Amino acid sequence: MYADRITRIAPSQTIAITTLAQELKAQGRDILSFSAGEPDFDTPPCVKEAAKAAIDAGFSKYTAVKGIPELLQAIAQKFQKESGLHYTADEVMVSNGAKQCLFNAFQALINPGDEAIIPAPYWVSYPELVTYSGGKNVFLPTDAATEFKITPEQLQQALTPKTKMLVLTTPSNPTGMIYTKAELQALAEVLKNTKVWVLSDEIYEKLVYEGSMCSFGALEGQLERTITINGLSKALSMTGWRVGYLATKDKALLKHMLALQSHSTSNINSIAQKASLAALQGCADQDIENMRLAFKERRDMAYAGLNEIKGLSTLKPQGAFYLWIKIPGQNSMEFCQKLLAEQGVALVPGIAFGVEGFVRMSYACSLEQIKAGLERLKKFMA
Ligand SMILES: Cc1ncc(COP(=O)(O)O)c(C=O)c1O
């Protein structure tokens, strides 16, 4: 009765635990949630001012589907200056969050039967988007020994004539790990002489606490195969504004993605574009740095506290705002449900990210909440 492609995709597995947390909260229970994938800060004041000015100026009409020219220009400049990515403004498009960028890219590239290589644990939406496109997910399991990063050998073994793309997330959600330049170069070496695309999701680029962020497309000879995806949601605490952007050197591919977007959502909200322009021109750079420092402090507290709890362990994440925690046993959903019922603490089960025996804790919340959450976790484990 319904379209095959729509019945192939499943709602996020994180919903079950989030719904349960909301229900308990509504019943008056004292719930500490560490499940959110968004910063708890307000959007920087200068960005809000730019949005207000756009409203007052009557900037409320359709814009070009890809975004206003000055925003595309600012994004291209950002890529050049901060990431060493040599894109021009006509190789960029703006979409409703990084999520729509990903949707556009998967839809434009994946044919039925095409294989997408996805390192696991993965961010929840990738496999569903591949499935929706009719493609096949090829998961590459990772573990703590390689800081949850894939190795060149794994990539080599996974390649088949049907491999269409490799999805890379650095810094990673859910592990917080960052690929070094050398690690990316080793992966690029494996892809040499192949036509495999790399979808580089760099949405957590600004949230780096150790080491440095390297964009796959900045590696020598890799820009042509790379679709770079980024956005304002995480770095600027603008999740609700829905601003993401992507860039590709392949103008025909960009045209296809724009055609798709022109028939679905058209341009993103015009006001948000003006606000984003102000942000990308640097008005909120100090706010971004302040938030990064706050996240670092929270990470340090959460990381140290967790490793003191018997039965739990975690690596020190270098970026993003998540801890990927090893739990006893292999039933992460049951662990999270019990923890929520007994201690009122909401974490996300690892199975939502394709891996059992782990849970994800977001530290995008206050130090007080982290402290209280750690105490409850300790009681739970005891
Ligand atoms: C790795 C990753 N990519 C993309 C997104 C989507 O971001 P946006 O809010 O810009 O759609 C998220 C959000 O959680 C994410 O964690």
From TrEMBL:
Its cofactor is pyridoxal 5'-phosphate. InterPro entries: Aminotransferase_I/II_large, AspAT/PAT-like, NHTrfase_class1_PyrdxlP-BS, PyrdxlP-dep_Trfase, PyrdxlP-dep_Trfase_major, PyrdxlP-dep_Trfase_small. The keyword Transferase applies. Keywords: Aminotransferase, Pyridoxal phosphate, Transferase. Residues 30-377 form the Aminotransferase class I/classII large domain. SUPFAM superfamilies: PLP-dependent transferases (SSF53383). One of its GO terms (molecular function) is transaminase activity. Its EC number is 2.6.1.-. Belongs to the class-I pyridoxal-phosphate-dependent aminotransferase family. This is Aminotransferase. The gene is aspB.
